[in-house]
Amino acid sequence: MSALPPCPQCNSEYTYEDGVLYVCPECAHEWPAQGEAQTDDSPQVRDSVGNVLQDGDTVTVIKDLKVKGTSLVVKVGTKVKNIRLCEGDHDIDCKIDGIGAMKLKSEFVRKA
């Protein structure tokens, strides 16, 4: 008998260990092994006033931002919905109405 827990999504008994994760081969769900759930070493992304940002949040631009390579400008007060956090210097991936997909720095936005 396997001592590994069943998959929490599909209850499959065929789970296996992959490093610090358990993986279900039937539904491809991955979850942390017991004891690993409490350790979250990923840095938190914060906006200009210190609020923690998460995927799906809505933010407001606090400074006019020139779009590199074009004559477009993202104006102060522009609301950006459904952001995605990513790694790197520009840590917010989003789509702005009238401009399109772009990346923003979290220091130029405030959580709405």
TrEMBL record:
Signal peptide: none annotated. PANTHER family: PROTEIN YJDM, PROTEIN YJDM-RELATED. This is Alkylphosphonate utilization protein. It comes from Pseudomonas typographi. SUPFAM superfamilies: Prokaryotic SH3-related domain (SSF82057), Zinc beta-ribbon (SSF57783). Residues 45-112 form the Protein YjdM C-terminal domain. Belongs to the YjdM family. Residues 4-32 form the Protein YjdM N-terminal domain. InterPro entries: YjdM, YjdM_C, YjdM_N.
